Structures
1.
Amino acid sequence: MDNGKVGDKRHLRSIMTRQKLLEAAKEIFLEEGFQAAVISQMIKKANIGYGTAYVHFKGKEDLLIVLMENVMDQFYEIAETSFFPKSKDEAERIINKQANAFLKMAEAERNMMQVFEQAIGISTVISDKWKAIRVKFIQRISKDVAYAQQNGLARAELNHELVARGWFFANEMYLWEIVRNEHQSSVEEIAKTITSVYVEGLYL
Amino acid sequence: MDNGKVGDKRHLRSIMTRQKLLEAAKEIFLEEGFQAAVISQMIKKANIGYGTAYVHFKGKEDLLIVLMENVMDQFYEIAETSFFPKSKDEAERIINKQANAFLKMAEAERNMMQVFEQAIGISTVISDKWKAIRVKFIQRISKDVAYAQQNGLARAELNHELVARGWFFANEMYLWEIVRNEHQSSVEEIAKTITSVYVEGLYL
DNA sequence: TTAACTTATTGACATCATGTCATATTCTTT
DNA sequence: AAAGAATATGACATGATGTCAATAAGTTAA
């Protein structure tokens, strides 16, 4: 027996239980999608008692949120990268890179993102999580646009907030399209094209 | 066989039943949203027997699709309006007008569109209905872009399909934003801004 | 070591929505 | 008016959810 430390065997077991459930949940989500995924299935797969699941999580939604935490953090990371271009060309290069990074997330996390997309449509809580990410992006882009306008790089007559939203929206929809594997062109091609239209339309 | 004249009292009653249910359904949908709307509630409100609802409709989804038919038709109508501009300025005017018409739908049909948006996230059948509308729009826009490119009005190096999607995506997301009443600016302002960036970015 | 206490687990149960189907009702035809 | 056809009906089977009182497992302190 191990000793010396605090008696936290109980707590450890609890963590194991939680973990088992999370893993089972992920498998079921990937197999069934969010809609069709059923808690009792996860419980069965995790080999725990029915009620136990509800001790650890409030329900399906809660489970998925935990499973998506790292992905959401990655989006926040991308969203936080601000930039201060000195020229239109530099802007285009950076914006293209960011659009790429954003869209690449769809490929990198495609399976869980598919589940996530479904869940956004169904669960208010999860939808709010995504909305928060969206807000973050739009705020960042808004600032970038305003900066470019202040420095005489971008058309000052445009409402920077509206421009930022429009730009993000196009990116977001492409993201989901890639998630669903419905895109025809490569991510690079997509990023290049929309960036080009955007930069040409906004910058001077 | 049906003679259309005599003895159609039964058929008429059936139509009335269907109608009563549709009206009740609309009320419930508007009160509760798609998710929370419950068939038994509609049945109660319509004063018909439980099983009767299933004689006329397959379920909630089916009911909503019928209720949204005219709205969907309006979208198709807007989507079908193609155009052949002779100059960048003319293009901007027409595109702005179309974006406006599209976004105005959100205001005109806001309540049912709110229900519809929820339903798109939840029901595959309804989601497919919207996807068909989207495809229609993108096809139309794609053609418009290609036409402009062929006539030396737009940057020929861009993939017209990708440009069209991006443009529609921005419009679509704004549409939902307006549906949810989350927009800050007026529809006109939104349309003007995104059109301006788009036209400046695409046309020569 | 044991008794009291705390924390975690459990499955039976109550609840609620759905869709089906055998039966009943209402209307039409002969 | 009897047979036949189209509609309507609600009881029922099904399946998912979340709760909770009871129990088990682990910890602490005497």
2.
Amino acid sequence: MELFFQALGDQTRLRLLNLMGDQEICVCYFVEILQQGQPKISRHLAYLRRAGIVQARREGKWMHYRIVMPPNIGAAQVLRQTLDWLKDERAMQADRARLNKACCSPARFNALAGAPKPIPVGCTSDCGSTIEVN
Amino acid sequence: MELFFQALGDQTRLRLLNLMGDQEICVCYFVEILQQGQPKISRHLAYLRRAGIVQARREGKWMHYRIVMPPNIGAAQVLRQTLDWLKDERAMQADRARLNKACCSPARFNALAGAPKPIPVGCTSDCGSTIEVN
DNA sequence: TTTACTTATACGCATTGACGAATATATTGG
DNA sequence: CCAATATATTCGTCAATGCGTATAAGTAAA
């Protein structure tokens, strides 16, 4: 419980969770959208993974991250409320807007040229060689 | 938002919030129930106060703390959910049980001999010289 | 005003965590 | 195997935090 809230107590991690909201997203998208160094993004994703809040899936060179609801009822409810809260915040809305823009025309962002787009969760079209991590 | 979750990311502070749940409680009760040093309790209460999650009221020598709902809708909802979550946790239930016992017979706890009992929130029977703090 | 009592804060120390830079690991394609 | 790409981890540094001890601040009563 302590660990759970500690994981939410960081601006960068909240921004990451906000972007994942309801999609599975590639690390390179986080780096591009948040305009933060790649090691920093990876570290925070690892933190969230240790806290059991996100899961990773490898697809070739790319790693996709998505939110997983905690088995504990209380934790799941708090997490859901938190995600709703994020949607109300101006800065978070701006991040989501930038993600949508990048999603629609990845070519505009050099770094995202060949990267896989975010995938809405529940879309179980297995694209081939993907491996669940953690 | 970051500060809010950081405030919840500590075991002692979660125990304090659990005990306050729906009553206003005197510092000496926290010290007795949690069996922790008084400076430690005070420090964590100060942290919660800085985060805007609790308020203090002075009554003579005693300080009473109570939870205050954040003005932000999202924060309030998350806080409420969190308090409900606490009620489901074994360790937290044990703390509440000890509080009730101490409440019913403060005389049994030396340290609580003349201390004011917890007061259910909403009970606006102003007992005289009380000062809102913060 | 002196004393006792309750609570808050200052101090020193140890741990944790965040960061950038550099480097390691994993995968793909030549 | 080698090079290129994407991601993870390590390292050194610095700020934040938690703790116990000691002490300060506020209040009530003698």
